[in-house]
Every structure is written in C-alpha cells, then in structure tokens.
Design goal:
- There is one protein chain.
- By secondary structure, this protein is mostly helical.
- The longest helix is centred in the N-terminal third of the chain and has 20 residues.
- The radius of gyration is 21 Å and the shape is elongated.
- The termini are far apart.
Length: 259
C-alpha cells in the first residue's frame, strides 16, 4: 500500500475503509445505541475509546454520514484526528481510500461547512486524506452554484487545492471564473487569472471564453488580454482558442452557460 508522510498526525489504512453502499449499520453496533444519538455524545465516546487504543473506524464513518450541521462537521473532523492517532500508534501509515474521502467531502457540503473542508485540505497528510478533483467536485458544484453566497467559499477551496496536492489546471480556473462571473464579481477575475498564470496555467477551456468576454465587457483587463491572445492564436491558423481540452464533461469541468 502507498504511504503518506506523517506530519504530526495519523493515517488510517485504506483497506479498512472501503465503503459498501448497500451495507446498513446493525442495531448491535454500539454507536447506533440511543445514548449516542446526539453527535456530541458519539464524538465524546469515539474520543474516549480511541484514548484507550480502540480503532473506531466504523463509528467515525457513522458520525460523518449522520452529520447535519456545521458543528457536527467540526466534531467529525475532530474524531477523524483521534481515529487516525490510533492507526499510527499501531504503525499503520496508509491513507484513507477514495470512498472515505468522498464521504468526508460530502459531509462538509451537506453541513455547509466549507471551513471544515478547508481545514482538512490544509493538512491532508496529517489527516491521511488524499484529495482528488473528483472527490472535491461536490464542493465545487455546491458553492460554485450559490452565486454571491458561495463565491468566497469556492475561492477558498480552489486556492487550497494546490496545498492539498492538486496541481492548478484549467478546470480549477474555469470553475472559479465561472463563479465570479455568475456572482457579478468581475473585479476578482484579474487576480485569479494572474494566480493561475504564475503556476503555468495559460491555456483555457473553450467554455471559458464567453465568461471572459463578460468579464472583459465589465472592465477586466486580464480577461481582455486572454481574449486578445486567443484571437491571435486563431488568426495564426492554430485552430485553438487558448483553451486546453474542450471535450470535458460537466462532471469533470462543470461546463455550462453562465447563470
């Protein structure tokens, strides 16, 4: 199994966390008992049991799956650290599997707790979470489609992706610029384009051009420059538009018209 570096934290073995969608928790599982119905009670019990050296992976998964508020999500993040501490104490340094990471992201999205996801993305090795674009797609769509209410959250998540191990690419800049344009935040487009350009992202998805046209019309010098460069490429016979791969699906790149 692949291992991740330890940064003062704990990793849980991948094979122990293969989610089985058809599986339901049984009444015999201790964490389903009535006294643990409240997330605070279950969280306290998980921490107590982990303190005794018990690896409470199933209880953690149950807590994440049942979280409903931002406070619940914070408890889930705390319990994650406790469970991982037990795994590392046992010498197990394998990361969580993709299904578990998706469960964690979905918890943050369901609870509208972007700060919890952001915290985890800022210390992925410590928590044993291997983030990928697909695992973060639910968050991108949730906060990217909320207009002004979600643009700050999406921006924080996108800019945290690099530190979480994802190389900046045309998909990331697309969803961010799309959110800016849909929210009427045209003044923020230039800074985003510059940030990605500094990281080598200079080609864009064809679906980005209409967004840049709107931003340029609203006064974005950066958007205007990209459009001018794309026009020059087309005139040069390259057939391109400054955009990279143009056949990405909505699931991969959140294609679509501006709202």
């Amino acid at each position: 199994m692949d291992a991740v570096d330890e940064v003062g934290g704990y990793v849980v073995p991948r094979q122990r966390f293969v989610l089985r969608p058809a599986k339901r928790y049984s009444e015999g599982d201790w964490y389903t008992q009535r006294q643990y119905a409240k997330p605070t009670a279950l969280h306290a019990a998980i921490l107590s049991r982990c303190g005794q050296g018990t690896l409470e992976s199933a209880a953690l998964q149950y807590l994440l799956s049942s979280a409903a508020t931002a406070r619940d999500a914070q408890l889930g993040l705390s319990a994650l650290g406790a469970v991982r501490s037990v795994a590392v104490a046992r010498g197990d340094m394998a990361p969580w599997g993709d299904p578990f990471v998706k469960t964690f992201v979905m918890m943050a999205v369901r609870c509208d707790a972007h700060e919890v996801l952001l915290s985890a993305m800022q210390r992925p090795n410590e928590l044993g979470l291997v983030f990928k674009w697909k695992s973060l797609l639910a968050a991108v769509k949730r906060w990217g489609d909320q207009g002004r209410a979600g643009v700050d959250k999406l921006e924080a998540i996108v800019f945290a992706m690099e530190g979480a191990g994802l190389r900046p690419n045309e998909k990331m800049v697309y969803v961010l610029v799309r959110a800016y344009v849909n929210a009427g935040e045209f003044a923020r487009v230039d800074a985003a384009l510059a940030w990605f350009r500094e990281r080598g992202v200079v080609r864009y998805k064809p679906a980005m051009l209409p967004l840049l046209a709107k931003a340029a019309a609203a006064g974005s010098a950066g958007a205007a420059a990209v459009l001018a460069a794309a026009a020059a490429v087309q005139q040069g016979g390259d057939g391109g538009s400054g955009g990279g791969e143009g056949s990405e699906s909505d699931e991969e790149g959140q294609e679509g018209e501006t709202q």
